Amino acid sequence: MRIDYAIRHPITLEAQFEVEGFTVLLGASGEGKSLLLRAIAGLVAARGEPFGGMAAQDRAVGYLPQGYALFPHLNAWQNVAFALKGPQRRDQAMSLLERVHMADFAERFPATLSGGQQQRVALARALARKPQLLLLDEPTSALDPVTRDDVIAELITEVHDFGIPALAVSHDPHLAAVADRLVLMHGRRIIQIGTSETVYGNPTSGAAARLLGYRNVHRGYVEGTTSAPRLAWPDGGVSFPIDDQAVIGTYVDWMIDPAAICLIDAHDALPNAIPASVEVRHVDRRITQLGLRCGQGRLWVAIPDGMQVPKSPAVHLPPRAIRCWAHDPSRHPSETPLLPGEKLPIR
Amino acid sequence: MSATTYRARVPALLSAFTLLLLATPFVGLAVVTHWRSFGFAEGDGGAIAVSLGYSMLALVLIIALGTPLAWWLARYSIRGKWLIDSLLLLALLTPPLAMGLLLASMYGPYGPAGSMLEHAGLVLTNSAPAFVMAQFYAALPYYVIAARAAFEGVPRELEQIALTLGHSPWRSFVHVSLPLARLGLAAAIALAWVRALGEFGVVLIVAYYPQGIPVKLWVNLQNIGLDAVYPLLWVFFLVAMPLPLILGLSARRRHLI
């Protein structure tokens, strides 16, 4: 289903993209993602298709807002039956609850259900409307981090089972990683669209990489000569050689994989070594990452199991592992790293 | 006594003192009532019927006209809303006697609205409609302010969700806004009921007749004395109490509507 919407108030926002299967619109807070969902549901004045010009009650959408908004005065089956009519409404509600594995909780009131259970009741209620499109606003925001992955897996299975296209808006890269289709929004524009694999494998800008949850995405400035380009990193107060074909004299967003960074001893006095201090040690199952302070900036470095951290640590950034994207200040003026003519604080 | 027990007892003792203050006049009433010669003055029965019947009618009118206004004020932001707030406050602030005089000057036989309505056959002085009007004016602002607060407490998102589930705005109001505002609305109705039933000042000016209980209490005091006041007052409590009591209790259950 193609979404093509333009909102003028309270912010200006335009969005065109296809929703296929479980589609996630990923964007930072304040981008207007929730507003877009509310516009599609007919709750905010906007122009666009599908459902253009229809009243909210006539739009065949199933809308799950943040926190799910179950009616607190109705129990689970009454919530689901709210969208149903006729003498069979209780049976229909029960069969929908069964499909989301919540039949045993039919008599329970929302306040006694967990976040995941509430989400499933809200999903059953939205599906009772027989929607052509499901709209989910930050579906992972009210979930317990421990059970979140399981709840997401169940949600996606249910969405696929019902065969209704679903658009979820989120700032959670965890949710984006399991989407059939991923739409990235930055600066109130769509900046990248594709399958999760293609978008994760090839973010087309620093903003996209940040949204996807990549670590070590920074801003910099390309200097030196075409044959020996160097990247100045103002936050780190250093510059280092790069292989990337970036244009000399331009601002860039750059990124390096934490696993590609070499942790060395500052006493080894290797060329282009960047002195650092250990700020935080992040152990996530079998992977250990160190948060290293370099000047005003921070670099994350993945270290092998059992590796001893040198007393005076430093890092070496292999030029081949550094990826640069041209930074377009006209598109995101608020992100221009330095004013024109401003001197970079390089040692 | 440990510090914790002491701290827990202070509010309980203060509350007991406040309740005692509140109960004092009624304890006094129980003491001063001549139970052996408990009897009613002539016309007390009629006053009870007038008060109950017309207060109920006034209450229906207040709910019918006040609820849409309260909901509109709770849900829509309009320019100059402070003017509406001021009008409600003005109606609340006006001393009852003054409100009676204002109503008489407007709806009385020589008032601009009164003379017109009289031509249409509606007499708004010393008549049943005048009695209902007096109670309506006395209780409406209390109802609107309390009901507005009740509607403001209903999350707007839930009303909107009802729309996305295919319900019309009216059905959303009936099935979501009303049940969720039921506690506050019950309080608003109870408040309007006691204000209407107990109203004396406004009624005294525009509807001395037909005599309701508050006016009859005054008449009994003037004509007979205190002994004729207490029995009617006991009946007043007896007939006025059930509605707010039942409303309060039933609204605390999950299903009112």
From TrEMBL, chain A:
Pfam family, one: ABC_tran
Keyword field: ATP-binding, Nucleotide-binding, Transport
Domain named ABC transporter: residues: 1-212
Record-linked InterPro entries: AAA+_ATPase, ABC_SmlMolc_Importer, ABC_transporter-like_ATP-bd, ABC_transporter-like_CS, P-loop_NTPase
Transmembrane segment boundaries: none
Taxonomic superkingdom: Bacteria
GO MF annotation terms: ATP binding; ATP hydrolysis activity
Name of the protein: ABC transporter ATP-binding protein
Species per Swiss-Prot/TrEMBL record: Dyella psychrodurans
Source lineage: Bacteria, Pseudomonadati, Pseudomonadota, Gammaproteobacteria, Lysobacterales
Automatic annotation (TrEMBL), chain B:
Source taxon at top rank: Bacteria
Transmembrane annotation, as ranges: 54-74, 86-108, 128-151, 183-209, 229-251
Subcellular location: Cell membrane
Membrane topology of this protein: Multi-pass membrane protein
Key words, A-Z: Cell membrane, Membrane, Transmembrane, Transmembrane helix, Transport
GO BP term (any one): transmembrane transport
Pfam family, one: BPD_transp_1
GO cellular component entries: plasma membrane
InterPro entries for this protein: MetI-like, MetI-like_sf
CDD domains: TM_PBP2
Domain ABC transmembrane type-1: from-to ranges: 48-247
The family this protein is said to belong to: Belongs to the binding-protein-dependent transport system permease family.
Entry-linked PANTHER family: MOLYBDENUM TRANSPORT SYSTEM PERMEASE PROTEIN MODB
Name of the protein in its database record: ABC transporter permease subunit
Protein species of origin: Dyella psychrodurans
